[in-house]
Amino acid sequence: LVANTALRFLSAFFVLALVLALTWRDLSAYALFDAVESGLHRDSFFAYSRLWWLGAGAVLVLTVASRSRDATFWTPLAWALVCLAQMTAWLTPAPALYGFASLWQEAPILALFWLACAVLPVLVLAAMLWRVRDLPAIVRVGAPVALAVASLGWMGAPGIAMALVWLVLGYAFGRRTLLVFGVLALLAYLSRFYYLMDSTLLQKSWVLCLTGAWLLLSWYVLRKLVRKSGSRDTDVAGHIDRKAGSRQVWREAGLLGGLVLILLVVNTGIYQREQILATGQRVVLALAPVDPRSLMQGDYMALRFAAANEIKTMLAQAPAALAQEIEDQQGGYLLLTPDERGVYQLSSLAAKVGTQPNAPSTVPLEFRLRGNTVRIVTDAWFFPEGEASRFEQARYGNFRVDSKGRGLLTQMLDEQLKPLP
């Protein structure tokens, strides 16, 4: 039975994937890290329309499977649709909310599909609550409204909307595997959310904080209103509370603690990077660039820095103890000093920051050893599709570096050390 189910899933998945690939226009246009300017208004209708139909199809088939006596017939097809919908959401461009107005003016049909994907979890939640008997009216109406308001924050992130759909359906139908898939899909897409280049890190931090705070507030208010509602609703709420018991308290505490921990970790990282951008020292490094193309990620520059080419030579000439320490910890710090043009040159290496006296103008910058390669901050610079000629002029990278040697690459500069137009 297991083998038959797996075969049905693989068959449905590959047939649907083949249809999706054959009808997908210009696959290279869907860069994983592209911003709004990368042709979203021109090409993204094909991605969003397919995402909507895959998501809606998955909801329909999962609903049928939950009510069918022969669930094994529908479940493989449902999982194929779920997996393809989440994969398509990952490949679909995700503009920020403030881009909706211009999108509506330029491509209203695309805007409707964009909006439809954002409200899909709201509609699914409303439908699932409507089918529950004796549920207080405040919950039937209030929960979907609260989720609709929260959806404004992630309207431009279809992967979050799809993951929420799986979470709602998994809870409603009692499917733990779907719940686990939804959690993993949500975490995976949030990791991509960090790299979306049409929003600043501070904007992303606000979206995460405000969305989390709103959902917690909505949960608290709805619970209070249920307890203060009419006698029938109060009886239902009391029955729910008694049934849950102490386990419910621990679950809520664990959920709240996990949410606080995630928000704390994510926003701490965002705050640290914003501080580097705001207060870090400006450092300019010469590039030794290559400019390949990736069909999966659109146009980008694979970066090599001239300083990185000197590290292995310096390691070979460094004291044995220093070289061994850098090799053991798979990285160290470049000690950089500026020349007369303000371009920083490698003067020496260090295993840790502040282990040796240096000139006031010396700046430490962290590097990592990755096998036979050296990585300084990043090894790629992504840019919108079709702008390769603009970045062919790049000769230098502009960094912001803090006192601990942590750096962020902020700009590409031309031969005259001017930002590329």
Could you please describe the fold and organization of this structure?
The protein is an alpha+beta fold. Helix content is 60%, strand content 13%. It has helices at residues 2-22, 40-67, 71-91, 100-106, 108-130, 137-151, 158-173, 176-193, 201-228, 231-279, 306-317, 320-328, 388-391; strands at residues 281-286, 293-294, 298-302, 331-338, 344-350, 363-370, 373-375, 380-382, 396-401, 407-413. Strands 5-4-6-7 form a 4-stranded antiparallel beta sheet. A 3-stranded antiparallel beta sheet has the order 1-9-10. A hairpin with a 5-residue loop joins strand 4 and strand 5. The model is unreliable at 26-42, 231-237 and 291-298 (pLDDT under 50).
**Gyration radius, in Å:** 26 Å
**Main sheet properties:** 4 strands, antiparallel
Mean pLDDT: 77
What order do the SSEs take from the amino end to the carboxyl end, as H and E?
A: HHHHHHHHHHEEEHHEEEEEHEE
Secondary structural class: alpha+beta
Shape: elongated
